[in-house]
Specification:
Blueprint lengths: L3 H31 L7 H16 L7 H5 L3 H7 L1 H6 L9 H13 L4 H12 L14 E7 L8 E4 L6 H14 L3 H10 L19 E7 L5 E2 L3 H7 L15 H12 L1 H6 L9 H20 L15
Antiparallel strand pairs: 1-2, 1-3, 3-4
Helix pairs in contact: 1-2, 1-6, 2-6, 6-7, 8-13, 9-11, 9-13
The structure holds zinc ion (ZN).
The site of zinc ion (ZN) has 7 residues, from helix 10.
Length: about 300
């Protein structure tokens, strides 16, 4: 295959195909899990459809909902019509694998940490899924307080997207539309450049009486906090890798903890003199401008800056 144009097209086709395959498998697994779940979590399937279609929309080359779901198109459209319409105008709040995690936590029971981690590991070990990292998380994190008996456990996964640009867009969307304000404020202190903001510091020290521990989903090991998580939350390890801020599973897991446990959150309030609620609103505005511009590069016009609400 000497012709560069031909080779380019072949590579594009492969990229499209890997995305499409993982997208379909995740949707299929969600539908399977839904049969074991109570009806009140149907919205998680609605949500993952929208998020995946959105990521297909900004994928290069573009991947359409029709080409992902194939012959279950009509059945899905009957039950979940909205994602098929709104994927090209509204932003998702979370990446697809977060919906998968929520579903597994729901089906397994929040207290069963070991079984949850095992179930997620099993799911991603599907040989079909592991051909590409598109839409699949590689790390899970569990957080809970340690100063009470039988604490409620909160989970999170690392950002799942398809390539660095869609990852950045999803981190921005989660900062603006999903994560707890302190967690989002910490992330935005270093996002998107990895350089610390000179005028705003929303980083915080996680209280001592909180466990926040990540595990590798592809290998049977725990995962010490990376440099970014050390900078954001005062976690300690000798790890030197600095992932894109907002990428790690710790972020979602702590955000879920703070949303439910107000007193833990209060103890983690950012202490820098460069922190204020007004400052946070200002950096939010910058991130909103950034993400609007990034979306425009994909011919996605985010008209009224609204997020999709799953039903
Ligand atoms: Zn990290």
């Amino acid at each position: 295959m000497a012709d560069p144009e031909e080779r380019r097209r072949a590579e594009e086709f492969l990229r499209q195909d890997l995305f499409r395959r993982n997208a379909f498998l995740l949707i299929d697994k969600m539908l399977e899990l839904l049969t074991q779940a109570s009806p009140d979590v149907t919205a998680l399937v609605d949500e993952i459809l929208h998020t995946i279609f959105f990521l297909g929309r900004i994928h290069r080359p573009r991947v359409t909902p029709e080409s992902i779901v194939g012959n279950i198109l009509n059945d899905l459209m009957d039950v979940f019509p909205r994602p098929f319409v709104l994927y090209s105008s509204e932003l998702p709040r979370r990446s697809p694998f977060s919906c998968v995690l929520d579903m597994i936590v729901h089906v397994t029971g929040r207290e069963n940490e070991t079984q949850i981690i095992r179930a997620v590991r099993e799911l991603i070990s599907d040989p079909e899924l592991s051909q590409s990292q598109d839409l699949v998380s590689s790390i899970i994190c569990v957080s809970h307080r340690t100063d009470v008996k039988d604490p409620v456990k909160y989970y999170g996964v690392s950002m799942s997207a398809a390539g660095p640009m869609s990852r950045k867009i999803m981190i921005a969307a989660s900062c603006l539309g999903s994560w707890d304000e302190y967690v989002a404020g910490a992330v935005m202190t270093y996002f998107p450049t990895k350089k610390k903001n000179q005028n705003f510091d929303g980083t915080f020290q996680l209280p001592e009486s909180v466990r926040c521990q990540a595990f590798d989903l592809r290998e049977d090991t725990d995962k010490p906090p990376c440099k970014s998580c050390q900078n954001l939350f005062g976690l300690t390890s000798r790890e030197l890798t600095e992932w894109v801020y907002g990428n790690c599973a710790e972020v979602e897991s702590l955000s879920n903890l703070f949303k439910e446990e107000a007193d833990v959150k209060e103890r983690a309030r950012p202490r820098s003199t460069k922190y204020s609620d007004e400052g946070r609103v200002k950096v939010e505005r910058l991130v909103k401008t950034d993400v609007t511009n990034w979306l425009r590069l994909h011919e996605f016009i985010w008209h009224n800056t609204t997020f999709y609400t799953p039903q």
